[in-house]
Amino acid sequence: MEMKIICSRDLFVEPSTLCRKQSLLGRPCPIWTELLIEADKTVKLTGYDLETGIECQIEAEVVETGSIVINSRSSEKIIKKLPDHMLRLKWSR
Asked: Is this structure's pTM higher than 0.85?
């Protein structure tokens, strides 16, 4: 199964940063540094610390629906360094 989305880099980075910061408010635990990305009719990013969560929807073209959990810090660092302002993200399982 694959998930494909196309969106602005800036529209992706800001919500992913908010979700990452939310997940770091709780006690340190590896799963709390993860970012849930769900692509259906819209793209939703979720960060959670087992008590409080944050969900952000972003404008994006959903080419193929799906969901994935990724490391928020690593992905944010990589995406911020990309030269192109439009992201074409594809995940395969």
From this structure: no
